[in-house]
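Box S1 | Example of a co-folding query
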Amino acid sequence: MIIIPDTVYKRFLQFALENAPPHDRSNWKECIGLVLGKIDNELMRVTDIIPIGSGTSVFVDITDYEKVFSLIPPSKFEQGEVIIGWAHTHPGLGLFFSGTDSKTQLLYQRMHPKAFGLVLDPTAISSTKSGFKIFRVDDLGRDYYAVDYQMDPIFDFQEVKREIISQLALFPALPPSPQRISNTEISWKNIRVMVRGPTLIRKNQLFKAALVLKTTLNQFIRLQYRIKITGKIQSIVPLKDYNQNQIVHETISQGTLAIIQFIAKDSGFSSIILTDVKITDYTQELQKSPDLVLNLEVQE
Ligand SMILES: [Zn+2]
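Box S1 (continued) | Returned holo structure for zinc ion
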């Protein structure tokens, strides 16, 4: 029996919905992940689905072992987790295996006879339906068939989807455009950087975000914002400053304004959000909106 914890399901659904936001159907993309798990006789317990790509060419050659293994944090293998399958999405297309999917699945089964392929279509979710199916193929990869699985625990899938969508709606994937308040003030509601682990971030890994101001202006500029961190990361330097307090920078030129250090408490999805961002140019009327960029950099 295949067992899927709710946490793993929610993470992959979030990844799927970010690439297929319900309010923007023209931007729907398929995405793909590797399924990790632990095998104990007849029991296969999924431990993680690692996002590895989205878009039109989401196929990852499972026979390219070096590439595949480089996508997985070594700690996973140390904890006894193995690749037990793959997962991809069919946004709005339904739950089936295409010819290519079946060929891909055959490669996974040659690597491990119990390997499986998970297909998720977020539009197929209801209160009692997870919106995904798990398939295997016959020895020649010609026919595919559905395999049973169990959720642990059982929950309301529609409710979880609604929750994720409400968060996505708060923070649209597109870069927000600034709002001009007056001739000297520009504001952004939210500037958000998604941090996707564990392909990017591993447990206890340090990383830093550089907040960069890009402007052609060289005038006295005041920048204020708050930082909100969601998910599995925690700021470390200096913690109290980033605890919902307003942060203020004053600068006379463009460039890096602040370096914020974080530590990943666990793999998974996280985001750094600058909220209530406001730029004030005291010296001269703003002719052109300056750009604010939050660059993420993982420290080795
Ligand atoms: Zn497919």
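The two ends are 39 Å apart (CA to CA). The helical segments are 6-18, 65-70, 74-78, 99-111, 157-170.
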